[in-house]
Fold these 2 entries.
Entry 1:
Amino acid sequence: MNTHRNLTLDQIDRMSLLHPVTSIADHDRNGPVIYEAAQGARLRDAAGRELLDMGAGLWCVNVGYGRAELADAGAAALKNLSYQHLFGGASCPDTILLADRLLGLFADRAGAGHFARVFFGTSGSDANDTAFKLVRYYNNLRGRPEKKKIISRSGAYHGLTAASGSLTGIPAYHKAFDLPLDGVLHTACPHHYRFAHEGEDEAAFAARMVADLEALIEREGPDTIAAFIAEPVMGTGGVFLPPADYFARVQQVLDRHDILFVVDEVITGFGRTGQWFGTGTYGLRPDIVSLAKGLTSAYFPMSASMISDRIWQVLADTSDATGAFMHGFTYSGHPVGSAIALANLDLIEREGLVDNAARLAPRLLAALRDRIGDNPFVGDIRGVGLMAGVEFVADRATRKPFREGTAPHRIVSRHAAAQGVLARALPFLPVNAFSPPLSITAAEIDEAADRYARALEAAMPELA
Ligand code: PLP
């Protein structure tokens, strides 16, 4: 109760907040779910109920909630140097050390020693905006001003600012916002389970997807295409793993047409796939990498853009002629975020959380398959590391989708919350996503799978 206005928090929320990615009408009817505290993989809501958060927030609380080490690092940084910008060559120790550490991690843990510099921002969306601007900048500086378009993929999620929201390939996010902006194209979604032709195996499907990409490039004119952007594993789209050979073939096409490769590791970075980076998991050779979420485990809003030698050389060589690099934000390289990111990386290393993700990956899939694999509406259970998706279909044999307007994954997700487990309903295909903190235990995975199975059982009358 807010004694001043004599209203409950629920009422004040409805009267005062515009919630991101929320139906205004539904929210007005149902009100908020208010969470008050969290520890490890468990959240506590305002009614005192405990829930297992199998989403780690929005795929981001990689080290789990309530880590004193990160709170202490943040508090010490706030007391020492609460703010410093990086404009005009100003700098600060932790931010310098963090940039160096990220370059080292990519070289050592992702086999990608070709990154030259790191640029910091505050969100995954702004990291992708930085990439959007950088590929234009790069081509303008090297005298290729006509090479500007960026190709993304249907089903991709790259954020929701005007530029990153345009790169996002999910129509629900474009509707009534007049997006995508000109100059952004979307090629086919490489999700084999849903989009393969009958009898088409993964290799043939990957070949077709890449042929579609190249046909789009040829149609538009390779001289007009600056970059291709991709998540190593498409997260929000539905946890789509790249088909075998897909990225190797994509890379050949990009090389052939002198097109930059922007890899969006906002979800996959920092252990999610059971390796440090998706770049290493899938042997990618990016020109720019976007990082956020796991960089600080969401204890501070922070993003990083890794910039390759190839781009850096052009920026550096033309610097005197171009003038200053006129891009950046008030909070770029924030000292508190940098201190928390360093403490977060220490924690991931000290506790072996990337290995934990790799070790528990089979457990997560097995726990789900064991408990719900026979359900007639569960079409596919897939994953890599600690990210998994459960895709619903009306008919398993034919993979027929549910009829338009039915959202089985939302129904199951609602029952899951009632059973004490959060499993997100995604906005592109009917998929529930699982991306728990990398610090989760085997027992917690089993407990979450038990609760989720009970939820699916309870949802059956609404699905039939
Ligand atoms: N890129 C990917 C792959 C994401 O999953 C997200 C967020 O979920 C973003 C970018 C956008 O990040 P933010 O919400 O921090 O702007």
Note: Residues 58, 123-125, 128, 157-159, 231, 235-236, 264, 266-267, 292 surround pyridoxal-5'-phosphate (CB under 6 Å).
Entry 2:
Amino acid sequence: MQYKHNLSNFFLYFTITNRQLDQQPTGIMALLDILEFPDPRLRTKAKAVAEVNAGTRKLLDDMLETMYEAPGIGLAATQINVHQRIVVIDISEDKNQPLILINPEYRIIEGEQDYEEGCLSVPGYYESVTRAEKIQLNALDREGNSFEMECNGLLAVCVQHEIDHLNGILFVDHISKLKRERIKAKLVKAHKAELKHRR
Ligand code: QAP
Ligand code: CO
């Protein structure tokens, strides 16, 4: 995996994590490369995390930093080519309410909503997707303790979008094939142009 070190974000983030944790794993924060559609690795089904340990927490820190830097409101481990069932979300205005989901599962409670979704793995494209309005979520937190919560609105959209990633599903799978193929062609073209530019 390729790491891009970002020292200015390190100090900011160190302050936040130190307040929350007894012991911060060693090593500096790192920005991770995000896979982009139609990369076939985004189709990998992630495996359950067997034990939440220091390595998991280091990965969570790097994922949060990568999400905040993008900036994005959600990131699944699949998107950084780590095929473990781990998700980070922060829909707060001030970007100071990280929600960590390890081995998340949900059940639909009720309703439907349409939301104009985007994705860090499909940069520059937004399309309306229909999902459940209200869900019940179970997951493990940063310490490996299980918790339960109800979500609706944007948070419910985000949770469903991110858990899709862990199953190899992208939001473009929920739109028409015509729109999906159009987005794919444009991204492939952009990727080729970037490769050429880098030589
Ligand atoms: C998933 O998506 C999501 O195209 C999280 O150029 C999105 O953080 C859940 C982003 C909408 C619910 C509603 C997308 C950043 C970020 C882009 C994101 C881009 C730069 C997407
Ligand atoms: Co996404």
Note: The helical segments are 7-20, 54-69, 153-166, 177-198.
